Amino acid sequence: MKELELDLENYRNLLNQYITTQDETSLYQAEQFSKLSMQHNISPEEIIHVHIQALRELYPDLPKEVDNSMEFLLEAMISYGLAYQEFQSLREKQLELKSEISVAASMQQTLLSTDKPEIEGLEIGAISVPANQMNGDYYHFVTDYQGTLGIAIADVIGKGIPAALAMSMIRYSMDSFPENQRFPSEILQNLNRVVERNVDPSMFITMFYGLYNPLTSSFKYSSAGHEPGFFYDAKKDEYREIRAKGLVLGVMNDVTYEQFEIKINEQDMVILLTDGVTECRVGDRFIERDEVLDVIKQYAHLPAQEAVELVFKHFERLQDFHLRDDFTLIIIRKNV
Amino acid sequence: MNLRSSVKIQQEWDIVGARQIGRDRAKALGFGTVDQARIATAISELARNIYLYAKNGKIVFETIDDLQHKGIRILAIDCGPGIDDISQVMEDGYSTSGGLGAGLPGVKRLMDQFEINSEPGKGTEIRTVKWVR
Questions:
Q1: What CATH topology corresponds to A8-92?
Q2: Quick one: which of A277, A315, B119, B126 could link to A273 by a disulfide (CB 3.0–4.6 Å)?
Q3: pLDDT digit string (tens) for B79-118?
Q4: Shortest CB distance from A79 goes to which of B33, B34, B102?
């Protein structure tokens, strides 16, 4: 098939060929012509114009009425031509925005990056995957000279860019707290004040903060309205919900948070998550917390990092690879 | 043919009158049918803006015909409320998303030159030109 050219002569020949043979080849060529025209930003009214001219050349005795009707059609296509041009400029703009957001997303990743600490006798697995480009979930590990491990996991109600911005603020306020303020209740109390003062009242942040001391094997924690995690008691081989009451961050200025403590024994696990995990949707149904736990159980015997990744993959598949919400899951297991 | 004429826009059917004059002039100047239709559509948009937002204004036609080039200049002048944020109305998707038509970005695309001046509370003047190719 010869190369298509975007000119009147070529169109006229194609049209003539189709009118005489009515074969599929000419129709296929018409399709090619149309695609080529789009590549060259040719508006529909221009195609009609070419059509009119071709018709006039092929049928000089075309009834006046038909000729007029073609002019009418041309007029009717003008707005479509404009809409087409607008669509193209919007598409370009969308590409620009997309690349801007991806720059922001990688910057966010740098800002919020946290190293998974190596702690003797403790195995940590963590995964956090945003639904869109930017993540409104956040987790962070802090270790200090005494060897304690602080674990923060937070979720902004809402997702996307505003949520991501709020998270960067949380991260930096936490960095600015004095070293001696490490207790979960204190940290949440301070963060609450920061969020209340600086974040739009319509935005809420839930957060769980835990502090593990390897010397005493104690795990202290407080929660600001965060999705309850699970505690695996190896001796009894049972999973319990980590219950902790507390108001979400940013609602009121002065809030105190209750602090709880549990003892972690060998092979026990602490499982922390965000509601992107528990509010996975399958079709139009939210899955139950029990189902989430069942999936976690299924992989819990594996090394912690492998387990969180497999749980994520499971839910990703369940949701047809289209996350509705940011997804964060942390598993901490005491090995010795 | 006189070089300058104008149509008052007060009612919706004034838009049709403005289109007619614009098309006749464009035809006389030697514009092709596609360009005639584009000019008429641009006039429609300009006149509709006057009718919808300013209530009262005019479309002015000028024929440009000197040795170098031929073209038509179309002005839309009103004493309406003016436009607060010109960059917003010139943004793609701003008026089209409301289904109001091609809007001013559309007019800009249909014509070769486009200039807008607007003062809130005083009115708007849009100057456009299309050249015969």
A1: 1.10.1240
A2: A277
A3: 999 988 888 888 887 766 555 567 899 999 999 999 999 9
A4: B102
Dihedral of alpha carbons A308, A309, A312, A317, sign = negative
Tell me whether residues A45 and B32 touch, CB distance under 8 A.
no
Q: What is the predicted ipTM?
A: 0.83
Q: Decide if A82 and B40 are in contact by the 8 Å CB cutoff.
A: no
Q: Decide: helix, strand or coil at residue A256.
A: coil
Residue with tokens 């961050």: A249
pLDDT recorded at residue A158:
65
Asked if residue A236 has pLDDT above 90, the reply is yes
Q: Taking all residues of chain A, what is their mean pLDDT, rounded to a whole number?
A: 87
How far apart CA A29 and CA A2 sit, in angstroms, is: 10
Residue B92: list chain A partners with CB under 8 A: 86, 89-90, 93
The confidence score (pLDDT) of residue A253 equals 87
Query: Helix, strand or coil for residue B89?
Result: helix
- Where do runs of H (alpha helix) occur along chain A? 8-21, 24-39, 44-58, 64-112, 161-176, 184-198, 275-278, 289-299, 304-318
Which among A49, A79, A83 is the nearest to B34, CB-wise? A49
Q: Return the closest-CA partner of residue A205 out of A138, A154, A140, A277.
A: A154
Q: How many domains does chain B have?
A: 1
Domain ranges in chain A are 8-92, 114-334
Range of the domain at B109: 4-131
CATH superfamily ID and name for A114-334: PPM-type phosphatase domain (3.60.40.10)
Q: For the segment A161-176, what is each residue's pLDDT rounded down to a tens digit?
A: 787 888 888 888 888 8
DSSP letter, residue A225: B
Q: For residue range A306-322, what is the model confidence (pLDDT) as tens digits?
A: 999 999 998 888 777 77
Minimal Cα–Cα distance from B35 to chain A, Å?
Answer: 10
| Residues making up chain A, counted from first to last | 336
pLDDT digits 0-9 by tens, A78-104: 989 998 988 889 999 999 999 988 888
- Helix or strand (DSSP H, E) at B118: strand B113-119
Question: B111: nearest CA in chain A?
Answer: A82
d(CA A203, CA B69) in angstroms, rounded, equals 60
